[in-house]
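User: Hey, my collaborator sent me this sequence without any context and asked if I could get a structure. I don't really work with proteins. Can you help?
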Amino acid sequence: MKKFFCAALAALTLSAAPPDPVSWKLENPAGRPVKPGARFNVKLVAAVQSGWHLYSLKPVADGPIPTRIWIAEGQPFSLSGGIQAPDATAMQDPTLNMEVEFYEGETPFTLPVKVAPGTAAGQTTLTVSASYQACNDKLCLPPKTVKTQLVVSVQ
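Assistant: No problem. I've predicted the 3D structure and written it out in structure-token form, which is a compact way to encode the shape of the chain:
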């Protein structure tokens, strides 16, 4: 009976958790085919619901979990430079007792991508991962990692 009660309580707690307040979308603004060895930019857009935020890309010692974006190995794409992000909002966080930087609303990140030399012509899927933590003024959700994909035409 005790096990059933614990399982029911855990299920209730999980069902009471708010849905993810951040959705992610990967875009290719140019939309043109790329050649092997070429560089191009893609845009990863985080749409953060009103009242929520995610922390900037800048790590802070003993601070909140920063947003991290990467292209995993094993695909014919890699980052060819630093990720461009909009200016983050800075605020003194009373709970953490430190200045933190975060993003709200629609936040675009520009990723410089390089196609590996020798990549075969055709449609190839680019997978970009992001790990982040969404918070509001009352709580922080557990850190989460998402993967977004975009089909890239290689010629």
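In plain terms: Residues 27 and 43 are 5 Å apart (CA to CA). You can pass these tokens on to your collaborator as they are.
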